[in-house]
């Protein structure tokens, strides 16, 4: 197996790309996809460390992260659909009022 | 070792390019498809790292369920090309500077970890990461979190139905 550093470096790069997507893009769905990318980068680091320490606990955590992100996607996309119905846009710059 | 390095380089290249494609492409459908490619390459990394169960779960949950949901919502809303309005002028440069700072910080911390530099030579135990072993740990040591997860999924299911249901007037 390659040194764990390689996988961590890849995870860092993917995480930073995801963070950049959250900061730059204004389409709420793409912002959401960037959050998924960041979660996935964390998963990669978890699995790399699980292999490094020969312990399955890391893989269990990845399993839980996947569950949480599935729940998050369901709720988030429902929110996006609701916002689109009231404002006819999912541009995050447009979502600046509390009143629907 | 050389073959592993070659495989890692090619897959890492594909993963990073697909992530950048997700970030850059103007059409949300292309972004979703780039993200599917990225998740698939990460699943191959999981296979290389002796995590076959997690790899298959990644394929079926992420690229199967989550991204289909994304594509469904994108096409339902017809919002492929949203986001062409006026922008804050300093948003893009500031975001790029902040991302570079984050990358440098994380890279500096990574370079300071001397213990992780050596290649891992030990072979993993037999059946490491197989569904049987993962399931045994999941249902012995992590039984309570697993049950809480089911409650979380139920809440998410009910919540998304409540959010999207149209109020009857």
In brief, what are we looking at here?
The complex is a heterodimer of chains A (100) and B (169). Chain A has 3 helices and no strands.
Architecture overview:
- The complex is a heterodimer of chains A (100) and B (169).
- Helix content of chain A is 77%, strand content 0%.
- Chain A is an all-alpha fold.
- The termini of chain A are far apart.
- The mean pLDDT of chain A is 89.
- With 169 residues, chain B is mostly helical.
- The longest helix of chain B has 26 residues, at 52-77.
- Chain B has 2 domains: 1-81, Four Helix Bundle (Hemerythrin (Met), subunit A) (Up-down Bundle), CATH 1.20.120; 130-169.
- Classes of the chains: A mainly alpha (100), B mainly alpha (169).
- The interface between A and B is large, with 70 and 87 residues.
Q: What characteristics describe this protein?
A:
heterodimer, A: 100 residues, mainly alpha, 77% helix, elongated, B: mainly alpha, 0% strand
How is this fold's topology laid out?
The complex is a heterodimer of chains A (100) and B (169).
Chain A: H1 4-24, H2 28-52, H3 57-87
Chain B: H1 2-24, H2 28-48, H3 52-77, H4 91-111, H5 131-140, H6 143-164
Helix pairs in contact in B: 1-2, 2-3
SSE ordering of chain A: HHH
Structural shape of chain B: globular
Number of strands of chain A: 0
Q: Which class best fits the helix and strand makeup of chain B? A: mainly alpha
Distance between the termini of chain A: 53 Å
């Amino acid at each position: 197996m390659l040194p764990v550093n390689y996988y961590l470096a890849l995870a860092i790069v993917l995480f930073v790309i995801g963070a950049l997507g959250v900061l730059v893009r204004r389409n709420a769905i793409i912002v959401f996809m960037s959050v998924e990318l960041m979660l996935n980068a964390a998963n990669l680091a978890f699995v790399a460390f699980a292999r490094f320490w020969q312990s399955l606990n890391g893989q269990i955590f990845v399993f839980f992260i996947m569950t949480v992100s599935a729940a998050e996607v369901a709720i988030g996309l429902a929110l996006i659909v609701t916002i689109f119905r009231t404002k006819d846009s999912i541009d995050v710059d447009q979502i600046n009022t509390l009143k629907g | 070792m050389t073959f592993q390095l070659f495989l890692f380089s090619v897959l890492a290249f594909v993963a990073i390019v697909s992530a950048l494609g997700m970030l850059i492409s103007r059409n949300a459908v292309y972004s979703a498809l780039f993200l599917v490619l990225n998740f698939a390459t990460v699943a191959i990394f999981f296979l290389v790292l002796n995590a076959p169960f997690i790899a298959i779960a990644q394929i079926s949950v992420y690229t199967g369920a989550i991204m289909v949901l994304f594509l469904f919502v994108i096409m339902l809303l017809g919002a492929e090309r949203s986001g062409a309005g006026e922008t804050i002028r300093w948003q893009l440069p500031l975001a790029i500077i902040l991302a570079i700072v984050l990358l440098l910080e994380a890279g500096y911390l990574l370079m300071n970890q001397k213990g992780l530099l050596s290649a891992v030579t030990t072979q993993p135990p037999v059946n490491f990461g197989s569904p049987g072993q993962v399931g045994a740990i999941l249902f012995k040591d992590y039984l309570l979190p697993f049950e809480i997860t089911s409650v979380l999924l139920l809440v998410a299911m009910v919540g998304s139905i409540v959010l999207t249901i149209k109020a009857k007037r």
